[in-house]
Amino acid sequence: MNNASLRKINPVPLTSVTLDDAFWAPLMEVNRTATLPIQYQQCKTTGRFDGFMWTRESGTTEPHIFWDSDVAKWIEAAGYSLAVKPDPELEKQVDEVVDVMAAAQGPDGYLNMYFQRVQPDKRWTNLRDCHELYCAGHLMEGAVAYFQATGKRKFLDVMCRYADHIAATFGTGEGQKRGYPGHEEIELALVKLFRATGEKKYLDQATYFVNERGRQPHYYDIEAQARGDDPKHWHFGHSYEYCQAHKPIREQDRVVGHAVRAMYLYSGVADVAAETGDASLLEACRTLWKNVTHKQMYVTGGIGPTRANEGFTFDYDLPNESAYAETCASIALVFWAHRMLHLDPRGEYADVMERALYNGVLSGVSRDGEKFFYVNPLTLYPPMFAPHDTFFGGQRQQWFGCACCPPNLARMVASLPLYMYSAGEAEAWVHLYAAGEADIELAAGTVTLTQKTRYPWDGEVTINVQPQPQSVFTLALRIPGWCREASLKVNGRAIDLDPLTKDGYARIKRLWQAGDKVTLSLAMPVERVEANPKVRQDAGRVALQRGPVVYCLEEADNGNDLSAIALPKDAKCTLGKCPEELGAVPMIKAPALRPDAADWNDDLYRPAGGMTKAVTLKAIPYYLWANRTPGEMLVWLTQQ
Amino acid sequence: MNNASLRKINPVPLTSVTLDDAFWAPLMEVNRTATLPIQYQQCKTTGRFDGFMWTRESGTTEPHIFWDSDVAKWIEAAGYSLAVKPDPELEKQVDEVVDVMAAAQGPDGYLNMYFQRVQPDKRWTNLRDCHELYCAGHLMEGAVAYFQATGKRKFLDVMCRYADHIAATFGTGEGQKRGYPGHEEIELALVKLFRATGEKKYLDQATYFVNERGRQPHYYDIEAQARGDDPKHWHFGHSYEYCQAHKPIREQDRVVGHAVRAMYLYSGVADVAAETGDASLLEACRTLWKNVTHKQMYVTGGIGPTRANEGFTFDYDLPNESAYAETCASIALVFWAHRMLHLDPRGEYADVMERALYNGVLSGVSRDGEKFFYVNPLTLYPPMFAPHDTFFGGQRQQWFGCACCPPNLARMVASLPLYMYSAGEAEAWVHLYAAGEADIELAAGTVTLTQKTRYPWDGEVTINVQPQPQSVFTLALRIPGWCREASLKVNGRAIDLDPLTKDGYARIKRLWQAGDKVTLSLAMPVERVEANPKVRQDAGRVALQRGPVVYCLEEADNGNDLSAIALPKDAKCTLGKCPEELGAVPMIKAPALRPDAADWNDDLYRPAGGMTKAVTLKAIPYYLWANRTPGEMLVWLTQQ
Q1: How many Cβ atoms sit within 10 Å of the Cβ of residue A471?
Q2: Contact B608 A535 (CB under 8 A)
Q3: CB-count exposure of residue B612 (10 Å: 0-12, 13-18, 19+)
Q4: pLDDT at residue B508 above 70?
Q5: Prior bond to A469 cis, omega within 30?
Q6: HSE-up of B617 (CA within 13 Å, CB side)?
Q7: What whole-number distance in Å separates Cα of residue A241 and Cα of residue A451?
Q8: Subunit contact A539:B564, Cβ cutoff 8 A
Q9: What is the pLDDT of residues B390-405, one digit of tens each?
């Protein structure tokens, strides 16, 4: 932590956390054994690895402008996985790809398969549309993760050379281009590179990109004119808002445009704020955070409701059936939330992080780790979209032409332990609950926390505290926003949570000794959640949530015409068990009503008040949907 | 009526019906004094009238491929208006346009401003996309209406020559093209021409077009190949379904594609069935009718939910906010319903006709007759569409680049009396209720019916019957489908309706004498209507309807966030009065609930069951929406 840092706490590194819970640990193992090999194969067979050596004569598919990023995210995921669990074959695969890239790198440090191989004369001529800096950022993230996992510097050095080239090319100095990326990502990556290497110029470069964005005269116009193009002609999007370049970041007060771009930018802005101590950037982040999480976020943590711009529309516009809610966008929301949490340790950030992780992120991957959703709607009505619709057809795909989501999921799941704990000088923070162990470095020494819990299916959490040496510090335990009744015991003695709890965390400051045992009980009844009345799409409806997990109805359990099922206001929800093929996790059941189809004949309209019949509504965790026979799905239920 | 006719009853001609009611008569007068002059000016200033004389040198806008139809529909509307009320200036305007067309007509009878003036070498080369036969059909309808109103034959003769040319060009004979229109319309127009002239070849030509449609090898492919085009490249639509040419009409069992095209086709098919006695065509109509009215129709009588094809999607797909529900489509549904009613006099046809007329048709025109909707959504949420969005912005427009709807409304309103009464040999039929008088020709003589009623605002209807001479016949009075309690008196004596009522009509057969008085009382409480549970968009919601009039909420009366208003199941609806600017017609009021905004702060989600506050819901007739300050509108209300 440098002196100027606004970061109040630091994440506990991946290598200091082990999970042995029944929820995340198996997912991480599936990620390692199924997802990563599949994505390796996909990158290989689609020509992504060979893209760095592609020639017109090779007869293979021409590299795409964002192929580098798919390779990069796979390496990053592999890095996290290797940090947690050694895997010589995986490491060898990465080394081979790194060798290819190192050989492909230009003498000036430039590295981009499309612009080196397909259009070498067009480098850096269209930052707005062409993803060069985006690809560079992902490669940097991959290099940092792989370096931190293995200690191997080769890829890191390659990316430092590329970053040096970028720093020489873009800036306010004489002869430099005053450009910045159309698809943000490099900002946060440069801060990672700065943290990994200590080279302040990478932080300065990130700061430049953040500050330059959205200034007038507009660089995208300047570069378009230099190309001889009409500045109004866009490859993607149709406006500066699309890439958050409509005004300088400190003047932005609504989250607009492409959702992933927005989240990556704000993550980078938070990073720059953290490292430079620029409070005005943090303030901008807070304003934008409030807008997106209070006005533009699905109950699943999905964001960006429309396919039109893969992004945001207007406040409170959250259509369920056509929800885009790109997997990458929820993942990127987690990134941003995690950064905000460390600048400002408040439950609201961890709540959103948790909401996204257990719902809109995890829904992106099938139980077997082999297939992925690009979009995550909250309703599926199969006649609406062709079953073969890659995005909206309601069936996960192994890969996509634009394959951003699968490797993004891979790196998210592989790095999951990183999101659980943080350390202050004399504070050990627990953000997420999952059985496992963490070694947390405080000023006074190391404290080992051992969690036992069946979270998210049960709200009982016990934590064994092993400080070395015994010392006075604060154990900060998150009291989730979803929890309305929590209680605490330390060494079997009940402690009143109220005076301890502030900003979503119970702060237990005492002399901790080896063998201390903390028990946190988070009441976890089924909750009916309603949306702000300004969300017109959810009017008269409720979503079922238990703990952090949002539930949904599937046709497999409830028959079709799910929207016709009404949950009476006074119906009592009980717990059952999902089928074995869904892991036998808790199912929510409730007595509900359906119009009696026989009573309707062939009528389209009739006076209200027809016959209904009693049915048992069966809801499964949203993230598990589409793992069985394809059919309807519904999150927001009519309540009567 | 020819011998083969399947038509069981005949409409009472426009000139035999006068309306002096408070609902339609003022609308017809506004149509004559405001709408027709505005449309005359629009046709004039946009160059539509001059299109028949356009040259590249004229410097004016090049005629569009469907401009003829706008001119034609204006003439047709003028014809109906002149039939009801003489207007020398209007007649002079029509005569001038007719002179232009007569002069422009080719020596072979051909008449089309685009193909005569812009692409003379492309005549009849692209029936699928280019609207030539569609324009011809509208011109024929205009000519017939104008002839019937004024007795002037000039335009009729022009159109007979054109019809002769068409009959010579298209058919199964040696050297003829086996084509048929991409946009149907000429089928019904040729039957009108046949009825007006007695020339059977026009009926034969209509029959040919109906029978040829959708056969293999597909004419659209043949003509595309002849043009040297790829048959897969479409100007409009993307498939044969779009223009109902995917299979022969007798094999079609779902209504698909462009809604107006479909309705015009089925109207023509019903006409051909009527005149040729081909029961297989009537059967096809019945199947298609059942599909569209039982599975694909809005509660307003709107049809065709999507802008994508200006038409149909799949059964029970009736989105409210993005409803296309083109004004022309509802008008064309009225045309078809009217035809079916005469083949098969059943209330279900008149019910749909009435539903569309009082709701989805009339919503297309502003109270002052000067502005028009192309689309008629059932919800308007202003942030969703730019206010300047010509289609979805929620504000009627004076004209459109594709101006089909305004003159279609003009001809519909101008011809309204035509839809009210029919005559069988010894049956006088009353389909719609409105104060006024009709002279109905029966075999035994003329019967004059004089209605007194405040319909649709009141269900009391008295009818004075004046037969000349007195005779035994059946007075068939429609008992609307919306009415759940009707009673009847003849000369003050109550008559049990049950034994008299069949297929939606009370049939009162007796010796009718001058001065007989019939009183029909149709109970008209506010009804809550629910949609078939398969309509997912209306789940948990009700629409308010009173008599034939569907109601809606507007922001002007209820504030914003209309979707947040919930109507309790037990809330009693009462009647109030709409503001004077809406004609002080009945308003529906009900005690309702709204979430308390103050209780929500800035939350997006929270446990259900927050505070609500009591409000008074105020609903106005749907057709009157968007006549005040622009704002939200909602038909389907959440019911709690």
Answers
A1: 15
A2: no
A3: middle
A4: yes
A5: yes
A6: 31
A7: 44
A8: yes
A9: 999 999 999 999 999 9
Nearest Cα to Cα of residue B254 among B218, B221, B290: B290
- A371 pLDDT more than 60: yes
Distances (CA, A) of B229 to B80, B114, B222, B236: 42, 20, 10, 15
Instruction: For residues B261 and B283, give the distance between their C-alpha atoms in angstroms, rounded to a whole number.
Output: 19
Sequence-ordered list of residues with C-beta below 8 angstroms from that of A185, at least 6 positions apart, any chain: A69, A133, A134, A137, A138, A264, A268
Please name the residue of chain A whose CA is at the shortest distance from the CA of residue B597: A533
Half-sphere exposure of B466 (CA within 13 A, CB side): 8
- CA-based nearest residue in chain A for residue B530: A608
Among A586-590, A608-612, B31-35, B112-116, which is the least confidently predicted range?
A: A608-612
Residue A387 — very low, low, confident or very high, per pLDDT cuts 50/70/90?
confident
CA–CA distance, A370 with A361 (Å, rounded to integer): 15
Cβ contacts (< 8 Å) between A533 and chain B: which residues? 561, 563-564, 594-595, 597, 600
pLDDT digits (tens, 9 = 90+) for A103-134: 999 999 999 999 999 999 999 999 999 999 99
Closest CB from B531, B566, B605 relative to A529: B605
B61-73 average pLDDT score: 96
Q: What is the structure's pLDDT at A499?
A: 97
CA A561 – CA A634 distance, rounded (Å): 10
Rounded to whole angstroms, the Cα distance separating B358 from B301 reads 9
- H helix runs in B233-372, sequence order: 259-276, 279-295, 327-343, 347-355
Beta bridge partners of A488: A495, A520
pLDDT of residue B235 exceeding 80: no
> Which of B256, B293, B485, B532 should one mutate to test binding to chain A, selecting the residue with the greatest count of A CBs within 10 A?
B532
Alpha-carbon gap, residue B12 to B476, rounded angstroms:
14
Q: What pLDDT is recorded for position B234?
A: 80
Q: How many residues does chain A have?
A: 640
Distance from C-alpha of B487 to C-alpha of A77, rounded to nearest angstrom: 77
Residue B111 reports pLDDT greater than 60: yes
Question: How far apart are the C-alpha atoms of B187 and B94, rounded to whole Å?
Answer: 24
Catalytic residues of A: 310, 404
pLDDT at A91 over 80: yes
A residues 600..639 contacting B (CB < 8 A):
600, 602-610, 638-639
Q: Read off the tokens for B638.
A: 């959440």
What backbone phi and psi angles, to 5 degrees, belong to B306? Answer: -125, 145
pTM for the model = 0.95
Amino acid symbol at A516: D
ipTM: 0.95
Residue B392 token pair: 């979805």
B516-522 vs B637-639, strand pairing mode: unpaired
Cα–Cα distances (Å) from B324 to A305, B321, B381, B542, in that order, read 21, 9, 14, 20
Distances (CA, A) of A631 to A62, A326, A381, A628, B78: 37, 20, 7, 9, 53
Give me the pLDDT at residue B129, please. Answer: 94
- Residue A610 DSSP class: -
Q: Which two tokens stand for residue B463?
A: 């009818």
Please, are residues B373 and B36 in contact by the beta-carbon 8 Å criterion? no
Residue B107 has pLDDT above 60, yes or no: yes
pLDDT band at A480 (very low <50, low <70, confident <90, very high): very high
Cis peptide before B480 (omega within 30 of 0): no
* Res A395: pLDDT: 95
